[in-house]
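Practice problem 4.
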């Protein structure tokens, strides 16, 4: 056969289309009493109506037409979207077990192979999460020991920012470094200098992967994995970056293994290695090297990204609203003065507490949430969701729920204050998600946010460089971070 002959090629294309449509038709018919949604097109499903850079915007818009529980189809996969505080809470809290699975997102499945804690499932996830929670607690999360580390690190951060002498700088790297050093102290009993080439490289590969994982190309990969795997360049970039981080973790635990003392467990890696020795090899062997590498990488990424991004939003918003910055500083001066900020000060500082909560809400750091999956067949709010259904509990729809936030589209600290200026909780404040898959480091993140934020505003007044425009548009990525910008930090006298 002449390979340049167009007839066989055309017949092959038609055959592929026929098979795809046949599979698509079968998939449509297996769902009974499934949530409603926009009519999908053959092959592409509903991709044509999506904002590929910020899909959470489309998810939100579709809920206005189809309600708080609806379905969409993105390429090969049909999924359910949950919107609004009441619906998301109902699923994640009231039906916690049924919605505790992690969707097997093709990109993360191909790269991570189900290891670690964030993208693992079933018993492996349960074992890794239990280990993570207990180890974080044992090594100081929520205790004085970790508070002392944050206090010490905040001094390094202030010193670094002072080195810019009030001149414009990009605060991304310094805030990433200050935050990651806290989780690194738990993982490795170590801190990095802010200019350490190894730290700078690790932070770069993490930030690059987060941008790639939230890109339109990643969305296409997840929609058409069987096709996109024929174009390995995209996957290779992510894999190479992750392998670089994994190599660092492997070298670290290999060194620690040689020095391991079961009676002096210094950090999470030591604790894991002891568990590895205790666990009898079997088909249910969970404390493997692959799980250790993935777990440390998971905690490094999660421990750096969301908290440092929230702090970046906080400083940007203080520059945007200098009157709010002054109110925070006045409260700091009144309650703390020139003393070191402590976690206990939070209860005495309702306005600062409200501002930090509003930064988290408005910043909307993980707008899509990470996709869940049903662990069993479940009837939810009148609809039937088969076991294994991908579910998007849309966090942006909770944090911007107009039934719970008076000025949802604005930065408004009064969302968390009563008429007397006292701090009030808001049930729809859910930046760490909820239920079985909520953020394992929530308590650590809360402490870091309060202590770093108050330390920074105690020591500096932040403003934009002369002539700069402050843009609150979020960037594209797996997390929602501010666009690149310069910042000036003027020491307070």
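Answer key:
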């Amino acid at each position: 056969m002449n390979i340049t002959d167009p007839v066989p090629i055309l017949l092959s294309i038609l055959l592929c289309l026929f098979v795809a449509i046949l599979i698509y038709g079968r998939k449509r018919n297996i769902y009974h009493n499934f949530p409603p949604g926009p009519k999908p097109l053959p092959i592409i499903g509903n991709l044509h109506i999506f904002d590929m850079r910020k899909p959470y915007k489309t998810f939100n818009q579709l809920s206005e037409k189809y309600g708080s529980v609806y379905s969409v189809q993105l390429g090969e996969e049909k999924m359910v979207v949950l919107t609004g505080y009441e619906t998301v809470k109902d699923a994640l809290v009231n039906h916690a077990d049924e919605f505790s699975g992690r969707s097997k997102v093709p990109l993360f499945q191909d790269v991570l192979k189900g290891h670690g804690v964030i993208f693992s499932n079933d018993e492996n996830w349960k074992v890794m999460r239990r280990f993570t929670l207990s180890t974080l607690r044992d090594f100081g999360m929520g205790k004085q020991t970790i508070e002392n580390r944050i206090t010490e690190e905040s001094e390094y951060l202030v010193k670094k920012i002072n080195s810019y002498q009030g001149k414009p700088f990009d605060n991304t790297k310094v805030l990433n470094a200050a935050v990651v050093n806290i989780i690194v102290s738990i993982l490795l009993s170590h801190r990095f200098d802010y200019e350490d080439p190894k730290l700078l490289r690790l932070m770069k590969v993490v930030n690059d992967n987060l941008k790639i994982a939230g890109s339109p190309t990643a969305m296409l990969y997840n929609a058409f994995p069987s096709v996109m795997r024929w174009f390995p360049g995209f996957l290779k970039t992510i894999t190479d970056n992750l392998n670089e981080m994994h190599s660092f973790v492997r070298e670290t635990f290999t060194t620690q293994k040689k020095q391991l003392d079961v009676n002096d467990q210094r950090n999470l890696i030591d604790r894991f290695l002891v568990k590895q020795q205790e666990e009898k090899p079997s088909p249910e062997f969970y404390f493997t090297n692959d799980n250790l590498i993935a777990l440390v990488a998971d905690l490094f990424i999660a421990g750096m990204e969301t908290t440092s991004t929230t702090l970046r939003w906080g400083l940007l918003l203080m520059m945007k609203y200098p009157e709010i910055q002054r109110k925070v500083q006045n409260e700091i001066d009144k309650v703390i003065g020139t003393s070191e900020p402590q976690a206990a000060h939070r209860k005495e500082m309702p306005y600062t507490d409200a501002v930090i909560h509003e930064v988290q809400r408005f910043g909307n750091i993980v707008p899509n949430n990470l996709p869940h999956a049903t662990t069993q067949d479940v009837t939810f709010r009148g609809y039937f969701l088969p076991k294994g259904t991908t579910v998007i509990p849309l966090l942006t729809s909770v944090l911007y729920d107009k039934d719970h936030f008076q000025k949802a589209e604005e930065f408004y600290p009064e969302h968390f204050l009563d008429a007397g200026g006292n701090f009030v909780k808001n049930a729809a404040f859910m930046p760490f998600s909820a239920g079985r898959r909520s953020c394992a480091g929530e308590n650590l993140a809360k402490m870091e946010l309060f202590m770093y934020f108050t330390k920074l505003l105690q020591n500096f007044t932040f403003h934009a460089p002369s002539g700069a425009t402050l843009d609150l548009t979020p960037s594209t990525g797996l997390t929602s971070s501010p666009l690149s910008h310069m910042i000036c930090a003027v020491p307070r006298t």
